[in-house]
Amino acid sequence: MVRGESGTGKELVAEAIHYASDRKSEPFIRVNCAAIPPNLIESELFGHQQGVFTGAVNNKIGKFELADGGTIFWDEIGELLSELQVKLLRVLQERSFERVGGVENIEVDIRIITATNRDLEEMVEEGEFREDLYYRLNVIPIILPSLRERKGDIPLLAEHFLTKLAAKLDQRVDSISQAALQLLAEYSWPGNVRELQNIIERAINFTETAQITVDDLPDYLKQGYQGDDALVSLQADGEVATWQDYEKEIIKLALEKHRSFNAAGKALGITHKTVTAKARKYGLVD
């Protein structure tokens, strides 16, 4: 049972378990308990016999049968209807089932991985989730931390998504500024890793340079943002820094964002020759 908030990557963990196992050459079947209409879920899971209900013009193979030999991944297991909880428990115990309207007992060899972001223990106490099913499923619990609990991973994840999505979108964006990374690290991430991926994809589409900067990030991330700390104070004790320290930092930020002496000069209102000379003076370029 893989547990964690929405967007923490529970399905990716399930896939990793499957493809690192001896079952990797067999099917990996996904079932989202919250996405299948209640009147269809039993047929989706167990299949049905021809003519058992209106529209059943052929025999249908269900998810369990499709997963035979491999893995079936039940996402949002906390949304499973109570009457289906009983049937799932039987499959877990007997490793067999019948199709809807059928009499043949179909045996299967499957690994079951479940995922949820709900408090199943509370649901058990309130009678919303069967206690015997809970203990059958919770044999090996895997708890995924939220992104705000693992902020040290944000730069690595951001760079991974940048490389992956820039190639997919055919965009020449290859880096993220330190100021943008700092802003990402300060955010609370209610949407977790999925939200980070979406923000990086947005920034790749919005940026006009080869580098993602603070300007390319959504406004809600920048609430209360005062700009780079260096532009407020470059001294650890909070005192005002020297003019040269400010000048060096401004030149550095302009080059990081605009990626050329000419574009940086236009942004700062000075000539590209001045930018070049200052950059060399402060050791920002060779």
Provide key terms for this protein.
alpha/beta, Arc Repressor Mutant, subunit A, Rossmann fold, 13 helices, two-stranded antiparallel sheet, Helicase, Ruva Protein, domain 3, five-stranded parallel beta sheet, single chain, 286 residues
Structural description of this entry:
- The protein is α/β, with parallel strands linked by helices and 286 residues long.
- The protein contains 13 helices and nine strands.
- The chain has helices at 10-19, 38-46, 63-66, 82-94, 120-125, 131-137, 154-169, 178-186, 192-206, 229-232, 243-258, 261-268, 272-281; strands at 2-3, 28-32, 71-75, 96-97, 106-107, 111-116, 142-143, 175-176, 211-212.
- Helix 7 packs across helix 9 (192-206), helix 11 (243-258) packs across helix 12 and helix 12 crosses helix 13.
Listing every helix as H and every strand as E from the N terminus to the C terminus, the arrangement reads: EHEHHEHEEEHHEHEHHEHHHH
Radius of gyration (Å): 27 Å
**For the record, what CATH class of the largest domain applies?**
Alpha Beta
Q: Percent of residues in beta strands?
A: 5-15%
- Average of pLDDT: 85
**Uncertain residue segments:** 229-236
From the N-terminal CA to the C-terminal CA, the straight-line distance is 54 Å
Helix/strand-derived category reads alpha/beta
Q: Strand arrangement, largest sheet?
A: 2-3-6-1-7
What is the H level of CATH, i.e. the homologous superfamily of the largest domain? P-loop containing nucleotide triphosphate hydrolases
